[in-house]
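Hey, can you fold this one?
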Amino acid sequence: MNDIKMLFRSSDRDSLAELAVAKKYFDVVETRMFIPKDSLVVGRYSVLPYYRELERDLAFNNSRLINSAIEHKYIANFDWYHDIADITPRTWFDATAASFAFDDLPHGMVLKGRTNSAKSWYWMYAKTKADFRRIDTFLHQNEMLAHQGIVYREYIPLDIIEKSCIPNSFDFVNEWRCFFYKTKMLAMGYYWTMAEESSIEKANNQDLFGAINIATQAAHKLAKRTNFFVVDVAKTAEGNWIVIEVNDGQMSGLSCCNEELLYSNLKTELIAERRKSYSNLASGLTPQAIEAYELAKKQQKEQAKVD
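Sure. Predicted structure:
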């Protein structure tokens, strides 16, 4: 892979501002038609809903996404849970099993799709068995969430930074978004951008060693199965740090992460990995072979410009 490209799809004012920063560090294109041959592609906000189709299109010119379809599916299907089950809330994938388990849980359950939620606490949090049945029925009537498959997660009370004054809405808890490329943390920021500035400042002025430790612990396991991802971690009401969720880094919003750090660090990691790969290749070649390899790369770039 000779070129690193970012396929960026902007949809609102915030993403346009992010796009401007991304362009400082990456060669950004806004359509797959402009991806040159032999490219590694970071599909920022642009890989869904047709991930496999995009992967196949890129393969025609020997290019690939930073996460393959299989690596993306590992995250989207909630398969990551089995690798870090000891540091994230207990989860059930079957309504019957979850219903039996419900009676033994002190704080109830959170119900959601494998990738997305209903975006409403009223349609997520089951405090009682009646809530469980109400929410489960509702989610199975939602075509998108039902297609993903419903997951049933033990609800663990979290440390609250800012209490919501709106009934059935989310409290702004002590939750953090961590971007990783493999085991390297690229950026970290408070999750809830809608919180008051004073609340975000309060969150930032705390010791985050536990958050970084648990996120990194998860990343070392997840990196065996995928490349670019986010780990969302939170502090429980009892003071322990746990993993809340894992998502594909390509489709994950910034939250309060610094986009300069995210994109500069990601570019650094990708370049370093490419150089290491080339170094490993070159170590087994004669000087004449290395010279021929460099010439071939140069000719490929010149031909791409002509095409």
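The chain has a mean pLDDT of 91. Let me know if you want another pass with a different chain boundary.
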